[in-house]
């Protein structure tokens, strides 16, 4: 008996034939629209805008978003979303999911806290792939201590005027809209608001950042220089943005943890395929006991992490998720991925070091998972505080 990329779903109580249908549909999209081009996009440093429209047409961008805002929610739940991101991971390029699906972090604050007019104006354009939206929280002065962010907003007459900088913003070079965390009030978390900023407003500037991994995902530093924004662009109440940011982090961390499991399975599959054909010392590599043990140990760690992801996803669906769990789960998943891709690279030997192999790419993407969306230290500290320490 062998373990294939997606076979685990068939044995999980959380997945059924409807999830399999999503998997097959995304797999078709990947074969036709992504796999032939992904290496080129990695070189280009960004995804083509048409890909968003094609992904929308294939039902990918709108999956599990409300029908009234251009999504498809009928019959879908969080596990369909996880299935979809698993299939998007098959290319072994994490930048694809990060950039094609950036609306997964940019849009939810609008849908949760925005005015009805804003939801109807923004969501359909994004879910149809016509417009791209980013989430801009991190600043050059630091991303971990969100409560200290400095991008300042003043009320001048009937307008807001925004000044400041954002850093490491995914899809930031191509974004038409940004959901931006700004300071409208005093110090700390009670002075933070969320604001929609259109990137064609005078005073918005951006520069591209080159990166170790996620290379097909464009990443930007964004500058706001006296940008005038109408009051109706406020997302939720003034000075009430912090809760929206925190809520967003929970689903982002769950998604990232699942993404790590998916990427680890891709790396393991590459190593397994190699071990079945490569011969050393007169027999298949996989027939050496130490290699068998190494790869089975990777499968053990992926399985254990996936079980926790699925449990957290189930709790998330029922509104019973606990922030400490998402935080610890993300650390578990990134450390697991770090181990699995290291072992996979070891099994592939020199071949893993050549640019363009899936394992080489995933190896370069480990750190962004361990840092982005809340770094390991911050995640474990958050969990420790929720455990009543400090
Ligand atoms: C490719 C990429 C894409 C990203 N996309 C986005 C995006 O779309 N939107 C967005 O807003 N942000 C984005 N980020 C930013 C990301 O969320 C931040 O990098 C992350 O939150 C950490 O912030 P920082 O890099 O400023 O590190 P810092 O906050 O400066 O921390 C540096 C290091 O010190 C550690 N540290 C900090 N404080 C403590 C402490 N008290 N105790 C112990 N250790 C501590 C941290 O864990 C970290 O390892 C992205 C980052 C990357 C690399």
UniProtKB/TrEMBL annotation:
GO MF entry, a single one: flavin adenine dinucleotide binding
Residues in Acyl-CoA dehydrogenase/oxidase N-terminal domain copies: 17-130
One of the GO BP terms on file: fatty acid beta-oxidation using acyl-CoA dehydrogenase
InterPro entries recorded: Acyl-CoA_dehydrogenase (IPR050741), Acyl-CoA_Oxase/DH_mid-dom (IPR006091), Acyl-CoA_Oxase/DH_mid-dom_sf (IPR046373), AcylCo_DH-like_C (IPR036250), AcylCo_DH/oxidase_C (IPR009075), AcylCoA_DH/ox_N (IPR013786), AcylCoA_DH/ox_N_sf (IPR037069), AcylCoA_DH/oxidase_NM_dom_sf (IPR009100)
Domain of life of the native organism: Bacteria
GO cellular component: cytoplasm
Required cofactor names: FAD
Domain Acyl-CoA dehydrogenase/oxidase C-terminal positions: 239-387
Record key words, sorted: FAD, Flavoprotein, Oxidoreductase
Domain Acyl-CoA oxidase/dehydrogenase middle: 135-227
Pfam families: Acyl-CoA_dh_1, Acyl-CoA_dh_M, Acyl-CoA_dh_N
The keyword Flavoprotein is assigned to this record: yes
Family membership: Belongs to the acyl-CoA dehydrogenase family.
Protein name as it appears in the record: Acyl-CoA dehydrogenase
Source lineage: Bacteria, Pseudomonadati, Pseudomonadota, Alphaproteobacteria, Sphingomonadales
